[in-house]
Amino acid sequence: MGMTSQELAAICGISRGTVDRALKNRPEVKKETRERVLAAARKYGYRPNLIGQTLVSGKSRTIGVVLFDFTHEFFAELYSAFEKGADQKGYVTFPVLSYHEPDREIEVINRLMDRRVDALILLPVNQGPDFEAFLHSLSIPIVVMANRLSDAFAFSGPDDRRASAEAAQYLYAQHPRRIHYFSPPLGKQAKTTNCYAQIVRRDGWLDARQKLHFSGTEYQSASEILSQLEPGDAVLASSDFYALEIQARLRRERPELAEKILLMGFDGLNILRFFPQRIATVRFSHQEWAEAALSQLADLLAGRKTADQSVSHQIIAPNGEFYA
Question: In what order do the strands lie in the sheet with 179-182?
Fold first, then answer.
């Protein structure tokens, strides 16, 4: 059986409350006392009883993070940033994956509640009044990222509409014949799940098309867009993976066009640098996003109101250079 906080307090010659405050780095504890407690805790292998603390305080110091999956490098990198940021604030993150399935999303959220998480960071698959009523019934702080819900929920994420418009402007500056838009989720998936980020990225492309008067068509099917592409065309895809899908299929099915189509995606995946024919992309700072969402949660956990947080973006050319 491990050492208790009462035994650690006796060894240090102080009260149990002082031990607790020293371990939590509270400012009212003298530096010398805190160092003595930490040294004794290391020497005797003391570990706090988190289950007991949860039962007493009602707080688990854990944050649930609900993402789509980890097969997409972007989500793995984003979660890593959240985990590091939460750790610095004394919280443990608990990741769960919805796999884009509305029913599973509700199931994994309930699992997190069974484990008494203090708050949620949520990339939602669901939407609508019933889902929002379910989230309100949880009675814990929630920050929604990328896919908006109603104004009743704090939102953290990039200005996807503006980023997409600027991406289209970058492509326009390269003098393409046409600029098409490719987003498979805006097909059947948009009718049953929350595709807010995908929708506003498409809207940004439409904004740029109206402003700059370029021609181009929206596609959800890779086969359809491949049949329509001609030399000198550009494709703005709603993610890097979709842009890479077009690139791979061009090489396989229409190799004569493979190097005559300008491709651009979203998310700034690190893996892009390993491709011999690189694509342009829109990059977001995972660290900035994590800091923004965790700052919002800190406000909510403290009972304060919080404002939506916008994450900056950068246009990255195929050579890896920033585009102003």
Answer: 218-219, 179-182, 234-237, 262-266, 280-284, 313-316, 322-323
Average pLDDT (87-109) is: 93
pTM summary value:
0.81
Half-sphere exposure for 315 (CA within 13 Å, toward CB): 16
Which domains does the chain show, CATH number per domain? 5-48 (1.10.260.40), 58-154 (3.40.50.2300), 160-285+317-323 (3.40.50.2300)
Enclosing H/E stretch for 228: helix 222-228
Give residue 48's pLDDT.
62
Backbone angles phi, psi at 239, to 5 degrees: -155, 160
Which phi and psi (to 5°) does residue 316 adopt?
-115, 120
d(CA 177, CA 300): 49
Question: What's the rounded mean pLDDT across residues 134-155?
Answer: 96
How confident is the prediction for the chain on average, in pLDDT?
90
pLDDT for the residue 191 = 87
pLDDT value at position 2?
A: 60
| Token pair 């570990």: residue | 47
Give the CA-trace dihedral at 133, 138, 139, 140, to 10 degrees: -120
